[in-house]
Amino acid sequence: MTLVEKALQKWPETRNSDKKLILAVWYLQNPDYELDFRNFFQNKAISPETIRRQRQKLQEQGLYKSNEKIEQYRYELFKNARWSRGATVAEDIL
To answer: Residue 45 belongs to what domain range?
Structure first.
């Protein structure tokens, strides 16, 4: 079990907030990470993007789902990013 999965399991509120999840994972890495944050962040901390991707992958597998409101919000962000390229699916195919 990864630290991301442990955090999602231990603190359900981290399922809805990547910021809370990142802090929770860092806490699991080192409960005293705040004492020398610069050193921890530069040398030991798991990348926030890695944490986000692991959360996303687990949730795509149906594990540790966020609440419905957050899922809809994330879907809208995805949809808007997809269409912001200026091409429709039909245009992509042709």
So the answer is: 3-93
Side chain identity at 41, as an amino acid letter?
F
The more confident residue out of 64 and 89 is 64
Q: Which residue in the block uniquely carries the two structure tokens 């442990």?
A: 6
Q: Is 11 left (phi over 0), alpha (psi -120 to 50) or beta?
A: beta
pLDDT in tens, 33-86: 999 999 999 999 999 999 999 999 999 999 999 998 988 988 888 888 766 665
- CA 31: distance to chain centroid? 20
d(CA 86, CA 90): 12
Structural domains in the chain (count): 1
pTM: 0.77
- For every residue of 1-30, DSSP letters joined together read --HHHHHHHH-GGGGS-HHHHHHHHHHHH-
